[in-house]
Amino acid sequence: MNIDSIRNGIVIDHIKAKKGLEIYDALKLGELDCSVAIITNARSKKMGRKDIIKIDKNIDLDLDILGYLDPNITINIIKDDERVEKYHIELPKQVVNIIKCKNPRCITSTEQELQQIFILTDKEKKIYRCKYCETIKED
Ligand code: ZN
Prior knowledge:
Layout: E1 9-16, H1 20-26, E2 36-44, E3 48-55, H2 63-69, E4 74-79, E5 82-88, E6 94-96, H3 107-110, E7 117-122, E8 127-130
Antiparallel strand pairs: 1-3, 1-4, 2-3, 4-5, 6-7, 7-8
The structure holds zinc ion.
């Protein structure tokens, strides 16, 4: 794969510098059967430094995971060498099975079959609370 361009695929841009690998792992991009490139510390006018991930295939991205990890990233969809779509993502209103509640008395620690659901309660401060016990997820 040419690092500079992909014919058909996805470019995840404006990732906070050094966060690319975390996103790569969270999206399980290592399990794909296509080329994936992570560029770290790329120069950015807007951000100083940023990471970029290029995926040589059009896959369904988990926007909840992406939005939770880094709400400022931009997704570019590339088809036949041209960018056909560009969009921003935002913090998901709730996340399911991405983070775990750390409260030992929470019902999710005894009822293993329950989904781990966190609700966004403060968008500005990025505060998520467990749906069951309202414990705040600490970063
Ligand atoms: Zn809880």
